[in-house]
Amino acid sequence: MLEARHTAGAKRYKYLRRILKFRQMDFEFALWQMLYLCVAPQRVYRNFHYRKQTKDQWARDDPAFLVLLSFWLCASSLGFAIVLQLSVMGMIKLLLWVIFVDCIGVGLMVATLLWFVANKYLQTQKSDQEVEWGYAFDVHLNAFFPLLIILHVIQLFFIHPLIDKEWFMSRLFGNTLWLIALGYYLYITFLGYSSLPFLRHTVVLLYPAMLIVLTFYIVSLPVGWNFTQGLMWFYRYRVGHYV
């Protein structure tokens, strides 16, 4: 007789219980995942298949990736706050906004929406499996990391000397970074769901969204819409700092 599966609640409890036990976390493997999410994301999802075979769950059971992502969020937000010349209080507000709204809040909404769509409309007819909500959130975290590196790390070095100017080249360069970052997010999200053998037609998660992003990118160039300047204004507005 097959061993009874852990309930979703038990899995979440086990995951949260380990979040402060750093000695039990595999940070080396989490760093490997972060590297390959940027250069070969398909390899990361092969490990999810292995976890399903050995631990009977698709979602991560080791919070090391989340802990390292939190570090990157803090470090990159600090860099962004310096570029924006925010006060200490503004820096703290920005950090809280990026963590709890940009990453977690948006992630909860996106993961829940795609979890519902995948289970409701993308299931194969003969499948008796379901997409785990925890796996849907893992897919968001996977896709969010390269986006964070591009927009909150790489972009920082070009904001003052190039992007934050009223030149066409500034708009072209900055908006192209946004196109690459959002393209990464959508592609890695697509890979996360397409790698599940009990889902079909997962391309509907990729092509329409990519078309929308590409349309905004093309329209933004002639109309003078600089995405990065808009983000900087928004962050200043959120922390109550105007220049």
TrEMBL record:
Does Membrane count among this protein's keywords?
yes
User: Where are its TM segments located?
Assistant: 65-87, 94-118, 143-163, 175-193, 205-228
Which InterPro entries does the UniProt entry name for this protein? UNC-50
Alphabetical UniProt keywords: Membrane, Transmembrane, Transmembrane helix
Where does the record place it? Membrane
Stated membrane topology is: Multi-pass membrane protein
Q: GO CC annotation: what is one?
A: Golgi membrane
Task performed by this protein:
Involved in the cell surface expression of neuronal nicotinic receptors. Binds RNA.
Family affiliation: Belongs to the unc-50 family.
Name of this protein: Protein unc-50 homolog isoform X2
Q: Which organism is it from?
A: Branchiostoma belcheri
Q: Which gene encodes it?
A: LOC109467832
